[in-house]
């Protein structure tokens, strides 16, 4: 937010210096990013009028001007393209010292005497425009010091606002905070209702429900649209970062900057019938003020007139920008002023969706006072009538009261205030702060009942009021105390591994940790086919950060892609974080980007997760081993190592069925623990890899973190007194039967007698039927109470073969 220092002081008179004012703004949370002094050295610069201008005899681009100073006529040689007879412009007299150290002296240019310099805004240090002389109004008093005429010296102050302080997107909003901090008072706004001078009006209908609960307007006929914007208004706009355009446009911009209410002025003669505020229709197009024609959908709101008896002709894009066909011009005579209240969720993301940014959308996205529209129309009407004349009709105010935000009283307890701040703030100081901020107070026995003004959307609970007292009273006045109290030592449970240790294990396996935002774009999730149970944000930072991540992989893959685009061929990343899913049924319609999410009191489900992405060679470049591309089994080996670290690998299994669509069929697996799916690993699906502009060698792993961190409690066992017996068998099984199925069958059959099971060979080809494979395994058998005999071992083998024949279609090979 950029504004003029003098404009702010007009609303809240204070003796504080510029430096003190800037320091105060920063101290109360309105961080000052830049202060640019204007017109500090303009002594000797006056308002002058060019009497005549003739071509320089020795230079094509120079003119010799006779200039009236109000105290005589001087000769000036000028090269500005807009220098002409009758022009009122600034003149730096001989002896003046301009900003930047430019000293004005009498000079001879190409043989012609010049006694001063006609100036551009840039040469005066008040604007970057150097295209020509600064043109002043025709009624500017010749001979008056320029600084006096345009209100200098001044300064442009730019502050950085946090999203919760939407009320400070205007000069008066900032003024209330300054008044509270500097013990001042805000001058009341002169916005008395303008009495109707005619019956001219327009019928307005609201068809967007709670998204537009208020729409105000007024018809003003016989306006002189060609009148020049007053200097004081034009300068305030210019110093706030807006360039004056035309009077009617400037008035709406001026009111927005001063009061915080975006407005729009229509040429009434271009409107027909009734004004209808409604959702846009799919495929509807609208030509905007910036010259672009945009195609809309039902997610946008429009203002339309009712040509032909139906609301079919959109004339403005609600809360964002007006239409080209109904704009005001110098030919406009009859004006329809509009100021509406668009709720934030109806505007958020819409302008970004169209690739545009407007001051109106920026304010409406953060919240505008719902009581402002009528005040803004009255204020703008008064300005127009005073400067451009006209005949005003009655105020049009169509309101859906049930949808308007109404501030609720909040109780502030005196004891709670002292406890949170750590000091006692005098009752008088508390009352002064809230009164200066425009809040209403009702004294209670133990504190106050406080009602915030409608512009303060951020005041919702007692803690918000305490924060207001803290920032205005001064954080520097809150004493610093060393915290005291007994610290309870918490021991980590032995049955759970430490997350830091898991990070170290992954780092030891050459993975680098990545930390990504918990927000992703809906478009990216659609590529991954994540469309259900999504958790959209009510107020996203941008369209690319509009949904809470349902998986760590989309963000982690983007990090991998970012690294590979920078010549990093071998990338190995992991991330530990939470993923979010909507609590409830899986059968929900996908979230539409930009559309207002349905709020619920049920919080989303948060699941701690681990994700790994890897691409490139399986091993770092070296001389001892030939380069080999990464494959499924490399990543599976890393997972097996992490599982073995917990000490219970027999509880885990990998299955080839039930895979999500983003994994490559045949090169991926579903991971289970105790039969419950906890994650997936494998190669990225070629279709998705192509869509993400990745090579097909990308492998991923994601699984819930808690099952991985659980481990078997250490238990001391005596050294076995009796020897083990080994029996090797080879079985012929169908190709689709996984090793995990075989392992589970063997362990279930032998129970505690099986000390270890080793797979040492896999064969398919000659001698084995097509569609089948041969697996050779070693059974390590041992009993804790006796030595197993050959008959015992043979019995175990027979039982295993029978179980495999029955459950896995196995055949014993000779």
Automatic annotation (TrEMBL):
Annotated GO MF terms: ATP binding; magnesium ion binding; phenylalanine-tRNA ligase activity; tRNA binding
Any single Pfam family the record assigns to this protein: tRNA_bind
Subcellular location: Cytoplasm
Residue ranges annotated for the TRNA-binding domain, each copy included: 39-147
Enzyme class: ligase
Classification via PROSITE patterns: B5, FDX_ACB, TRBD
Keyword RNA-binding: yes
Domain FDX-ACB: 720-813
Domain of life: Bacteria
UniProt entry tagged with the keyword Magnesium: yes
Region (Disordered): 586-605
EC code(s) of this entry: 6.1.1.20
Record domain B5: where: 405-480
Cofactor binding note from Swiss-Prot or TrEMBL: Binds 2 magnesium ions per tetramer.
Required cofactor(s): Mg(2+)
Gene Ontology CC entries for this record: phenylalanine-tRNA ligase complex
Residues that hold Mg(2+) according to the record: 458, 464, 467-468
Record GO biological process: phenylalanyl-tRNA aminoacylation
Record keywords, A-Z: Aminoacyl-tRNA synthetase, ATP-binding, Cytoplasm, Ligase, Magnesium, Metal-binding, Nucleotide-binding, Protein biosynthesis, RNA-binding, tRNA-binding
Catalysed reactions, as listed in the record: tRNA(Phe) + L-phenylalanine + ATP = L-phenylalanyl-tRNA(Phe) + AMP + diphosphate + H(+)
NCBIfam families: pheT_bact, YtpR
PANTHER family: PHENYLALANINE--TRNA LIGASE BETA SUBUNIT (PTHR10947:SF0), PHENYLALANYL-TRNA SYNTHETASE BETA CHAIN AND LEUCINE-RICH REPEAT-CONTAINING PROTEIN 47 (PTHR10947)
Family: Belongs to the phenylalanyl-tRNA synthetase beta subunit family. Type 1 subfamily.
Assembly and binders: Tetramer of two alpha and two beta subunits.
Protein name: Phenylalanine--tRNA ligase beta subunit
Organism in which the protein naturally occurs: Dyella choica
